[in-house]
Write a structure and sequence with these properties.
binds pyridoxal-5'-phosphate; alpha/beta; four-stranded antiparallel sheet; single chain; 2 domains; Aspartate Aminotransferase, domain 2; seven-stranded mixed sheet
Length: 367
């Protein structure tokens, strides 16, 4: 341990993120073929065919640096969202926007408030700057507890994150509760609204987060091309905020943080509304199917506004390993304190059926 004494203690204290296992690795380890991955909330339909075609056309250009300002993507997206181009900050995934916020606003002694269980990157980016994570338990129904979040804010609070819909529960908060919360916040706290699953939301009273960017300086809406747009592998996400805030994040970022292929793919994906609609439809049908089947098996799920379901399999210990042995990769929730629970990404109909069949087999196997 040669560098133990000089590494920053708050970096040494971090636990490296454990992503869902790649399909190839699971197949190799278990000696099986045709595993399915329903663990990382990726789009089971894949990327838009328009994005794929655009990528193929762009490949020969990768000897050049990308456009550091993401001009084409910025113009297109600003128009679509009806915001000014300088209100957008792009990153290598919306993870990078979280990092930029941390880099710009956090140091030792600063606090960041967010619900828990929620997105695993919040504590990582906060602790990575030596600041203090302040996780606030969800309600009994596993919904963000906005009153408790408000109560946890102190003069040391720099950022508060609301993940809506929340990963890993799928639950969301409605406009009334959210608007009351946003109104109650002190001026000098950055409000980060993580809408990674925005395009999947069905509830009609979902908060209008972009409106809050207009109403409240210091509000950031985080979105991504990794989920419904099916571009997780090229890494591109963005934040929408007031131009002052965007200016600070622009100072903090690397000049070529969004690669050339990511920019090309995102531009093309924005033009394929049909792919987004198909993805949303297949997801809604998958949610309905899985919710019904799981209820029939007596397993509890929570209402989801996203492309995944939290499932309490309490009575089935070791269920994730047993699913893995049957070639179905899901995300165990033990690390979040949900013992015996799992998070499953909504797949194609045949993938959802395979999950249910495997789960039935496991339930019938004597222990
Ligand atoms: C997936 C996800 C993100 C970020 O994904 P990127 O691939 O980095 O864009 C952010 N927040 C939540 C809640 C997510 O689930």
């Amino acid at each position: 341990m040669a560098f133990e004494k000089i590494v920053k203690p708050f970096i040494a204290a971090l636990t490296p993120y454990k992503p869902g296992k790649p399909i190839e690795e699971v197949e190799r380890e278990l000696g099986i073929a045709q595993a399915i991955k329903l663990a990382s909330n990726e789009n089971p339909l894949g990327p838009s065919p328009k994005a794929l075609a655009a990528l193929q056309g762009a490949l020969a250009g990768i000897a050049r640096y990308p456009d550091g300002g993401c001009f084409r993507l910025r113009t297109k997206l600003a128009e679509k969202l009806a915001v000014a181009p300088e209100q957008l900050v792009f990153g290598a995934g919306c993870d990078e926007i979280l990092e930029l916020l941390a880099k710009a606003f956090l140091g030792p002694g600063d606090e960041v408030v967010y619900g828990w269980p929620s997105f695993a990157m919040y504590p990582v980016v906060v602790q990575g700057m030596g600041a203090t994570p302040v996780p606030v338990p969800l309600t009994q129904d596993l919904v963000y507890d906005l009153d408790a979040l408000r109560a946890a804010i102190t003069p040391r609070t720099r950022i508060v994150f609301v993940c809506n819909p929340n990963n890993p529960t799928g639950t969301s908060v409605g406009a009334e509760a959210f608007d009351r919360f946003a109104k109650s916040l002190p001026e000098k706290v950055v409000l980060g609204i993580d809408e990674a699953y925005f395009e999947y939301v069905q509830r009609s009273d979902f908060p209008n987060a972009l409106d809050w960017v207009k109403r409240r300086p210091g509000t950031v809406v985080l979105r991504t091309f990794s989920k419904i747009y099916g571009l997780a592998g090229v890494r591109v996400g963005y934040g929408v905020m007031d131009a002052e805030l965007a200016g600070y994040l622009e100072r903090a970022r690397h000049p070529f943080n969004v690669n050339l292929l990511a920019q090309v793919a995102a531009c093309a994906a924005l033009e394929d509304d049909e792919h987004v609609t198909r993805s949303r439809d297949i997801n809604a049908r998958g949610v309905a199917y899985l919710t019904r089947e799981l209820a029939q098996m007596g397993l509890r799920t929570w209402p989801t506004d996203a492309n995944f379901l939290l499932v309490d399999t309490g009575a089935l210990p070791g269920v994730c390993d047993a699913l893995l042995a049957r070639g179905v990769i899901v995300r165990p929730m033990d690390a979040f304190g949900f013992r015996g629970a799992l998070r499953i990404t909504i797949g194609l109909p045949e993938e959802n059926e395979r999950f249910i069949k495997a789960l039935r087999e496991i339930g019938e196997t004597p222990k």
